[in-house]
Amino acid sequence: MPGSETTAARRVVDLITGTWRARALYAAVSLSLPDHIAAGHGTVPALSERTGAGEDGLVRLLRLLVALGVITGDEEEGYGLTEVGALLVADGERSMRDMVLLYGEEFHRAWGAVVPAVRTGTSGFEHAFGMSLHTYLRDDPEAGPRFLRAMNAGNVFFPEAALAFDFTGAHTVIDVAGGSGLLLSAVLQAHPHLSGTVFDLPHMLPVAERHLSAVVDVHRYETVAGDVFDKVPAGNDVYLLSRVLQDWDDERCVTLLANIREAMADGGRLLVLERVVVTDDTAPLLPLLWDLHLLMAAGGRERTLDGYRSLLHAAGLRLESVHSLALETSLLVAAPM
């Protein structure tokens, strides 16, 4: 049996090589290996020809990807995709390819500034790029849609969220800062009696329009441009707010929530999708990882349940119920006080 010192040393090695695993996955996606393998070009010579990569380097990368459970096979027989690898094919229904690219490019650079970010409280992204993530997404015409596609890849909990709340008595729903429209479409598809709105900045709406028009009847939705920090459209029964509070400090969050409260009728409800940080020894790891990642990416944070409760209270709202969803995400239901 290994001694405790040996076990601890192995744990350190496992931790410090975690980045290598992520970089190997990024290399596979950047070289479009999952796409080539899915198309039947799973041998080393075929992959070398299609990627322009040398066979020696490819073999070593592929060997690691097999060990990581991304692909299956070997150099002699060729390679196939596992369920994990299938999620990395570009045109897959639930492709996570763009997410891997974003985390391997912009967010990888942001995490390179983890020490100054922790020291100063300024986002790693600002240290690395000289501008905030929000400015970057606004000013680069390709960055906003690519960011939305990447975030969509992690939205496996949207169908759960659509069923976790009773929409029976509602008629209209609005997704505030709704981005791609994926959450709204999940809700509208699950509840045919509803009509809905995506409300977001103008440069975000084309992606939402394209997605909604493909899956929802045109008469059941609309997209409206505006700034959530100025005013939120009134007159809706249910307001959705998915992973928005995590990007902002407390003061800005209260401003945003107060705008929603002003727009809500007394019988309205606000559904907040966020990860909740638990601070005892039962804490799941993902919210803690995401909390630090938000400092790297946008200067934001995840919060404890008491933290979310305080923000809601400051905006004239009360936390009514909490529902657990996939990927350690929570649905917080808030009502007017």
Note down, in words, how this protein is organized:
By secondary structure, this protein is α/β, with parallel strands linked by helices. The protein has three domains: 4-86, Orthogonal Bundle (Arc Repressor Mutant, subunit A); 97-151, no CATH class; 155-278 and 299-336, Rossmann fold. It is built from 18 helices and nine strands. The chain is globular and about 65 Å long. The protein is 49% helix and 15% strand. A seven-stranded mixed β-sheet has the order 5-4-3-6-7-9-8, with helices on both faces. 37% of the residues are buried. The protein starts with a helix and ends with a strand. The longest helix has 14 residues, at 250-263. It has helices spanning 4-16, 18-30, 33-38, 44-51, 55-67, 83-86, 97-104, 106-111, 114-120, 124-129, 133-139, 143-152, 158-164, 182-190, 205-215, 250-263, 285-297, 305-314, and strands spanning 71-74, 78-81, 172-176, 195-200, 221-225, 238-242, 269-274, 317-324, 330-336. α2 (18-30) packs across α5 (55-67), α2 packs across α7 (97-104) and α14 packs parallel to α15.
Question: What is the compact description of this entry?
Answer:
By secondary structure, this protein is an alpha/beta fold. Helices cover 49% and strands 15% of the residues.
Give a topology summary.
Blueprint: H1 4-16, H2 18-30, H3 33-38, H4 44-51, H5 55-67, E1 71-74, E2 78-81, H6 83-86, H7 97-104, H8 106-111, H9 114-120, H10 124-129, H11 133-139, H12 143-152, H13 158-164, E3 172-176, H14 182-190, E4 195-200, H15 205-215, E5 221-225, E6 238-242, H16 250-263, E7 269-274, H17 285-297, H18 305-314, E8 317-324, E9 330-336
Helix pairs in contact: 2-5, 2-7, 7-12, 13-14, 14-15
